[in-house]
Amino acid sequence: IDKPAIIFAHGIGACKETFIKSGVMDALVETHRVIAFDIPGHGASYNITDLNKLTSEEKAIFAREIYNLPC
């Protein structure tokens, strides 16, 4: 796919649904690859209290999940 990618990253207390419900992703999908995800501890992701407490393995899983998101 030769479309430029846009990654939507939400703020504290929000979730990826913010971008989906607003229609902004739908507006850009024809001209861009759009990606939205929930950062750990928010939205549909698993709940953690401190990102610094993630193990190396958990950080690697998170990185792989981001990399493999459907675009």
Give an overview in words.
This protein is 32% helix and 14% strand. The chain has helices spanning 17-22, 24-28, 56-67; strands at 5-9, 33-37. A two-stranded parallel sheet has the order 1-2.
Number of strands: 2
Class derived from helix and strand content? alpha+beta
Largest sheet: 2 strands, parallel
How are the strands of the biggest sheet laid out side by side? 1-2
SSE ordering: EHHEH
Cα-to-Cα separation, first versus last residue: 9 Å
Number of contiguous helices: 3
Low-confidence stretches: none
**In one word, what is the shape?**
flat
Helical content stands at: 25-40%
Strand content: 5-15%
Short description:
The chain is an alpha+beta fold. It has three helices and two strands; from the N terminus they run βααβα.
Please tag this protein with its features.
alpha+beta; two-stranded parallel ribbon; 14% strand
SSE topology sketch:
Elements: E1 5-9, H1 17-22, H2 24-28, E2 33-37, H3 56-67
Parallel strand pairs: 1-2
